Amino acid sequence: MSDQPLAVLSRRERQIMEIVYRLRRATAAEVLDNLEDPPSYSSVRALLRVLEEKGHLAHAHEGPRYVFTPVVPHDAARDSAMSQMVRTFFDGSTTQAVAALLDRAASSLSEEELDRLAQLVEKAKREGR
Asked: Over 50: is that where the pLDDT of 3 sits?
């Protein structure tokens, strides 16, 4: 994936993308059924159209319905969102971002999770990252 971030999404657009990723394909009605505190059906359709214009979704006709699917693989979307978050909130510092995540999760991490994090740090050191 390029370093070009995906278009920034609003909170509601992120919620819709999470639903479409989880369902793998969805109609406006299915998205509406899965939204917490949903807006109107026409608002969901409008948001799906915006997400398509931003390059996140594509649609196909199935009878009278439009079925939406993600254009960007979930991993690529996640990587883009993480990069944007690190740039926006941590001045581009991965160290600051990881430290903030660890501060939030310190009391809830299991021994296995802490071991896995230590392994990832060691691997990054070996690979010269």
From this structure: no
